[in-house]
Amino acid sequence: MSSNTLVTASGLYRYYNQHCAVNDVSFELSRGDVLGFLGPNGAGKSSTMQMLSGNLSPSAGEIIINGIDLLDRPKDAKREIGYLAEQPPVYRELTVNEYLDYCARLNRIPRERRAQALATAKERCGLADVATRLIGNLSKGYRQRVGIAQAIIHTPAVVILDEPTVGLDPLQIREIRSLIRELGEDHGIILSTHILPEVQATCNRVQIIHQGRLVFADTAAGLDARMSATSLVARFGNPPDVSRLLALPGVAEVAALDDGRVRIDFTGDSPAEALVEQAVAGGWRLQELTAERHTLEQIFIELTTGDAPGHASGAAA
Questions:
Q1: DSSP secondary structure of the chain
Q2: Would the pLDDT of 75 be above 90?
């Protein structure tokens, strides 16, 4: 195991009576990773998160947190974990300073280090200006920041965030996403979410769980490659014969659309440049050429339902 590996989950299973909620899930998390963990309701995502945080024992399998076996040494391993629940566990009647001091004591930070721990958490989460205010009087975005501050106050190796932007306005969402990316530079982050754009905006790795199994695990670059264009939509003033389009390099299929355009499916590199050259040479009067990309939502549906993704328009070629 690499010195940068912060989480190793091996062969995780979780049964509820005869129902297998988590089925042979294995993955690693390294320092600097922001891992987006996606799954529909009932997929096993919550059970996996609970096992990783030490709140639920696996029926089988192993979890190593920063080199510590979570099952053999749970107290030591949990010191390496920071956790933010979907509803931040804040006490509204306390000030930010009072609450974070309480959290520091819960995490057994020595008295002589406590003031510095509070100052660092407040600085990283942008809470210095509201430190003396009651949490109950803060906006939801600031309460979310307080929740993240309590999760990192003991400088854990791993931070687990459950739906951290639910209910926030667009500006607050942008601020929290920026904070998560910054935290990912020093920690390993596991971000559990139902919000697909959250993954694209924040994470460098993506995992999708369905019916207890990981059905997708790759880098953000790998996800982008899966989302890359595999078809072109074109409109011609003087449409060529379909056989001319099929003769273009890489073209697999040509289909007429209801509005007079044609969809050109291809494999490998895009034939857009060759199509433009042929259109000019053949007098096809090319009027429109658009690349189609699969969206993350389409890929998610394909992986979790088995339905092939539909077509969605992307940037013009």
A1: --TTEEEEEEEEEEEETTEEEEEEEEEEEETT-EEEEE--TTSSHHHHHHHHTTSS--SEEEEEETTEETTTSHHHHHTTEEEE-SS----TTSBHHHHHHHHHHHTT--HHHHHHHHHHHHHHTT-GGGTTSBGGGS-HHHHHHHHHHHHHTT--SEEEEESTTTT--HHHHHHHHHHHHHHTTTSEEEEE-S-HHHHHHH-SEEEEEETTEEEEEEEHHHHHHHHS--EEEEEESSPPPHHHHHTSTTEEEEEE-TTS-EEEEESSS--HHHHHHHHHHHT--EEEEEEE---HHHHHHHHHH-PPP---EEEE-
A2: yes
Domains delineated in the chain: 5-221 (3.40.50.300), 229-292 (3.30.70)
pLDDT of residue 313: 41
pLDDT score recorded for residue 165? 86
> Does residue 222 surpass a pLDDT of 50?
yes
Pair of tokens at residue 228: 């890359």
Task: Name which residue leads in pLDDT, 8 or 225.
Answer: 8
Q: For 280-306, how does the pLDDT look when each residue is reduced to its tens digit (9 = 90+)?
A: 999 999 999 998 877 777 788 877 776
For residue 145, the number of C-alpha atoms closer than 13 Å in the C-beta half-sphere is: 26
Check pLDDT > 80 for residue 2: no
Per-residue CA distances from 219 to 10, 52, 208 (Å)? 19, 21, 12
The whole-angstrom separation of Cα 213 and Cα 86 is 23
CB 254 within 8 A of CB 263: yes
